[in-house]
Amino acid sequence: MEDSIQPIKHDAYPYQFNALACEACGGHCCTGESGYIWVKYPEIESIAKFLELSIEDFAIMYLKKVKHRYSLIERYREDKEDYACIFFDDTMSRCSIYSVRPLQCRSFPFWEQFKGDKDEVKKECPGIV
Ligand code: SF4
Ligand code: SF4
Questions:
Q1: In a domain, 34, yes or no
Q2: Residue ranges of the alpha helices (H) in the chain?
Q3: Measured between alpha carbons, how far is 102 from 95 in angstroms, rounded to an integer?
Q4: Is residue 70 assigned to a domain?
Q5: Residue 81: inside a domain, yes or no?
Q6: Cα angle 17-18-21, degrees, rounded to a multiple of 5
Q7: Beta 88-89 vs 94-95: how paired, if at all?
């Protein structure tokens, strides 16, 4: 049944994405080198609500300010010597706030920076076909 799921296409992009790859991948897009996971105010509100936290408590626990923007924080993983998004669940190898994950996460791997570079996005995501 699952094999009948079609890869996701996007007209402007020279590749497709097979979401079935996520299960075996182990969250490559949520871990690795340190980076930013940008969140806008409505996303902050949604995640805080999902976690049953006030915006203030959520911000103290999970956000960092980078100039005029906000990013989710990361945590260093000593065993792997890399970083993971604070909401990446190592045990389950998946996002613990999946239904309210930020647009940056929802739109991956269809990011502007990868539009002309299938080879580059393939290095980041094993679901690229
Ligand atoms: S890197 Fe690609 S295959 Fe892996 S979890 Fe992220 S979107 Fe899924
Ligand atoms: S919010 Fe979820 S999908 Fe986005 S980087 Fe963090 S763990 Fe991954």
A1: yes
A2: 21-25, 41-50, 55-62, 103-107, 118-124
A3: 11
A4: yes
A5: yes
A6: 125
A7: antiparallel
Q: Which of 5, 10, 22, 37 to mutate to test the pocket of ligand 1 (most atoms within 8 A of CB)?
A: 22
**What is the per-residue burial (b if ≥16 Cβ within 10 Å, else e) of 28-41?**
ebbbeeeeebebee
Q: Is the dihedral of CA 26, 29, 33, 38 positive or negative?
A: negative
Average pLDDT over residues 65-79: 97
Its domain, for residue 80, covers: 2-124
Cβ(16)–Cβ(118) below 8 Å: no
What's the CA gap between 100 and 114, in Å, rounded? Answer: 24
Question: What confidence category does residue 60 fall into, taking pLDDT thresholds of 50, 70 and 90?
Answer: very high
113 domain-assigned: yes
Evaluate: CB of 15 within 6 angstroms of ligand 2.
no
Q: How many structural domains compose the chain?
A: 1
Query: Do you know the residue count of the chain?
Result: 129
What are the tens digits of pLDDT across the range 98-118?
Answer: 999 999 999 999 999 999 889
Ligand 1 lined by 115 (C-beta under 6 Å)? no
